[in-house]
Amino acid sequence: MNPRTILSTIVILVLFGISAKNSITVTMDSGEAVATCISEPSKRTRRRGLTSIRESRFRYQDEDGNSQEASIWFSIPRPKAGEEVEILYAKSSPQLIYYNSVFFVWMLPLIFGLLLLVKPVSIGIRHRKSKVGIG
Known about the structure:
By secondary structure, the protein is α+β, with helices and mostly antiparallel strands. The chain is built from two helices and seven strands. The chain has helices spanning 3-28, 102-132, and strands at 30-39, 46-47, 50-51, 56-61, 67-72, 84-90, 93-99.
């Protein structure tokens, strides 16, 4: 295996681990709330050489009545300022919020998990072709 393949596999594995941990945290230790969008996602901008991700900022009250602000980075559908949405938040980490939907909570772990399954298969196919002398 070449270093690029190893590095990409490690990156996918780390992203899978982080997204799965966040999803498990929200699922196991969650509170429900209605959040108000306080800033709409803007177009991608470049600052200091980095491309920013579209994020929506929300304000909500947790179960204890504390006002919290948090972001959802990838907002589909894009909420308008003042729009209310149902969210799940991690009680132990109120900045970790998801739309109140199984799809949104488990979407990233599912995507990265599928990539982890596809990666070994593609490596195996390439290895088999190189042994046979194809390609």
